[in-house]
Specification:
By secondary structure, the protein is of the alpha+beta class. About 45% of the residues lie in helices and about 10% in strands. It has 27 helices and 16 strands. It has a five-stranded antiparallel beta sheet with strand order 1-2-3-4-5. The chain has a five-stranded mixed beta sheet with strand order 13-12-14-15-16. Strands 6-9-10-11 form a four-stranded antiparallel beta sheet, covered by helices on one side.
Length: about 675
């Protein structure tokens, strides 16, 4: 579903950014604005400004800024669509759902209501568990023995579930309420005669356990983890899967660790609740834990909403290596050139808590810094059991590493690894690439070869199981990635999906678009940005939030087009121009996109030069956006100057903006870019 830009504008106009930000940041009135400590970086003096007139926030320390939707995305880790729905719900607005049937709309509304009700039930149980902890000397002694202070226990909302079978009956007078079972708090008829007939009907899931509430990124309780005080089994017990809780998508401690990711520069993924709590106690509040399951791509994707660096921590034994191998599978699709993914293996006799207590926090920090990079661990995993002194062993490694390498997104890291792998297996990089291109990949169930694709692409282009995504799409060999030419030639030729007689893959006849001819007006910088980003949508994903805001805030059709492009990425992932073109049908900026992309589709490029052309395109985009950002900073400087004498924060704001602009100008000069 595409959310109309007009609705988003109306939503932002109605929302009070001071109220939204104020729920997470303590704000104080300062002139016309409100000030507070920035939630995106550590600071002692407030530099985070929220403007009620402009409905905008800005930090003069780290430069982060945006509107109410942007704040929910950046601080709460929501996707664009989720943030819009969340904000609209707070203000009683209905997100347009014209392309959704009444039955689906009613089902979605019912699901949202059910989720809200379940989180209320879980919050009430969490309050009761925290009260029980005060009268539970055994649980308090256990936490003290693990070095957990009262402050940290309060921060994580730790509680205690009493030993009785029906302790929650005193919390919920209607103990037969189906919501108690649906939320996972109560088990129904599962003791097979061990209890009386009356008791066997319903009883508490968690009994005589230290309770760790599991919160989503908005801070709502969605489940619990319970740890026994003795040696009973199971040692840890999690809430079951419910409409609000899925252990394959949630991470314990994520809500508490969000700000620390930015302060410490990375997220540390551990294996248990107590690891997270103990690390927070010992000076590492940036730790999270998977919930008794292997790390998934959903876990990794959620972490990269908050940070560009992730370190997975595992025990050094065989079980730890197996867990790390599964985490590698989940992380590979997100291993872009600007992200850091590492694997930390502790000595077999230690967990993070015991290691820090024995060796100190500085030693642990060094250990983290020296963790194994993803590239090295991937090679180690692929060559395990392979004798590289023999042709058979090298061939075996080639087979092992192919699906791992293929899961990575294209970029400099992936291409460097191709060369490294080729050296290890004693092949030229071009020969290895040709070998993989000419032989079928691993087979899926049913015998169909599995096509390699990026994690964020739809299952299309003839991929097994995905033929109904674009029904008339030709097979993979008919698709070529966007291409780029130098400034003296037309840019980004992309093969049209045509059959005989000019029939398009979408089933509609369309004459080829002719490139623009004649002198005409030179393209503007927003025009160039549109052309480059529509030609290679993956570049939008790599841009900073500041650049996203700048482009979406452009006046007229350019801003509306970029807002639409952002929504497409959040809803459908990276798409080729052919798919984007179909989505543009009937939109107000369709003609603008078609006009600019008609130039992009003209002219072939020499075979084998695609990588260089894509790199040139990335450099051109970076240069164009730098110039556009400098123009924006100039405008902000002038606005700050105009506020001198009216706003006490204006001088500081001017100096911060000027420093950023001069730094940007110096970078442009150093890169040899032409000035405007």
């Amino acid at each position: 579903m595409t959310i109309p830009a007009s609705f988003i504008q109306e939503l932002i106009a109605r929302a009070d950014v001071v109220e939204i930000v104020g729920r997470y940041v303590q704000l104080k009135k300062a002139g016309a604005n409100f000030m507070g400590l920035c939630p995106f970086h550590g600071e002692k003096s407030p530099s985070f400004s929220v403007s009620p007139t402009k409905q905008f926030y800005h930090c003069f320390g780290c430069g982060v800024h945006g509107n109410a939707i942007g704040f929910l995305m950046e601080h709460a880790g929501m996707g664009f669509v989720e943030a819009v729905h969340d904000l609209a719900g707070q203000y009683g607005m209905q997100v347009p759902e014209d392309d959704v049937s009444p039955a689906e709309r009613a089902r979605a509304a019912s699901q949202r209501q059910k989720q809200a009700t379940l989180t209320d039930v879980l919050e009430k149980a969490g309050d009761a568990y925290r009260k029980h902890l005060r009268q539970a000397p055994g649980a308090i002694e256990y936490l003290k023995g693990r070095g957990v202070s009262g402050e940290v226990a309060k921060q994580f909302g730790i509680g205690y579930a009493p030993a009785g079978w029906r302790a929650l009956a005193s919390v919920f007078p209607d103990y037969d309420d189906p919501l108690l079972a649906e939320s996972g708090l109560v088990i129904v008829n599962n003791e097979e005669g061990k209890l009386s007939e009356e008791e066997a009907k319903r009883y508490d899931r968690f009994r005589d356990r230290v309770m760790f509430p599991i919160r989503n990124v908005k801070g709502e309780c969605i489940g619990f983890g319970g740890r026994v005080l003795g040696d009973e089994k199971p040692k840890y017990l999690n809430s079951p899967e419910t409409p609000v809780f899925s252990k394959g998508r949630e991470l314990y401690g994520l809500y508490e660790a969000r700000s620390a990711f930015r302060d410490r520069g990375y997220a540390l993924v551990t294996e248990g609740y107590m690891d997270v709590v103990a690390l927070a106690q010992l000076g590492f509040p940036n730790a999270v834990a998977t919930l008794g399951t292997a790390c998934t791509t959903e876990h990794v994707q959620k972490l990269f909403r908050f940070t560009e660096s992730v370190v997975f921590s595992f025990d050094g034994d065989a079980a730890g290596r197996r867990a790390a191998r599964k985490a590698l599978d989940g992380a590979l699709p997100y291993a872009t050139d600007v992200r850091s993914i590492k694997f930390l293996f502790l000595p077999a006799e230690h967990d993070p808590d015991s290691f820090i207590r024995e060796h100190g926090a500085e030693a642990f920090a060094r250990f983290v810094n020296e963790a194994t990079p993803l590239s090295r661990f991937m090679i180690e995993a692929a060559r395990e059991g392979c004798d590289l002194t023999t042709a058979e062993g090298r061939a075996h490694m080639t087979s092992n590493v192919r699906p791992l390498w293929g899961a990575m997104p294209d970029g400099a890291l992936k291409r460097q690894l191709l060369s490294e792998i080729a050296t290890l297996v004693q092949l030229d990089a071009s020969a290895l690439s040709e070998l993989w291109a000419s032989t079928p990949g691993p087979r899926k169930a049913g015998g169909a070869p599995a096509q390699q694709r990026r994690h964020d692409e739809p299952p299309s282009y003839g991929d097994a199981g995905g033929d109904d995504y674009y029904p008339d799409m030709p097979p993979p060999q008919d698709y070529e990635p966007p291409r780029y030419e130098s400034d003296s030639k037309p840019k980004f030729q992309q093969r049209k999906f045509t059959g005989k007689g000019g029939k398009r893959w979408g089933g509609k006849f369309e004459e080829p678009i002719e490139p623009l001819r004649g002198r005409g007006a030179p393209p503007s910088r927003p025009d160039v940005a549109v052309r480059l980003l529509l030609s290679n949508m993956a570049q939008w994903e790599a841009l900073s939030h500041e650049l996203h805001v700048m482009l979406c805030d452009l006046p007229g059709q350019h801003g509306a087009l970029f807002t639409w492009l952002d929504s497409q990425l959040h809803e459908h992932g990276v798409q080729p121009w052919a798919a984007l073109r179909e989505g543009l049908r009937g939109l107000e900026f369709e003609a603008l996109a078609e006009r600019l992309m008609s130039v992009a589709e003209a002219g072939p490029i020499p075979e084998g030069e695609e990588a260089q052309h894509l790199a040139d395109a990335a450099r051109e985009l970076a240069s164009v956006l730098d110039f556009m950002l400098e123009e924006l900073l100039k405008k902000q400087e002038n606005e700050a100057i105009a506020a001198f004498g009216k706003d006490p924060d204006a001088p500081d704001r001017f100096r911060a903006i000027q420093a950023r602009r001069l730094e940007l100008r110096a970078r442009l000069r150093a890169s040899g870019s032409e000035t405007a």
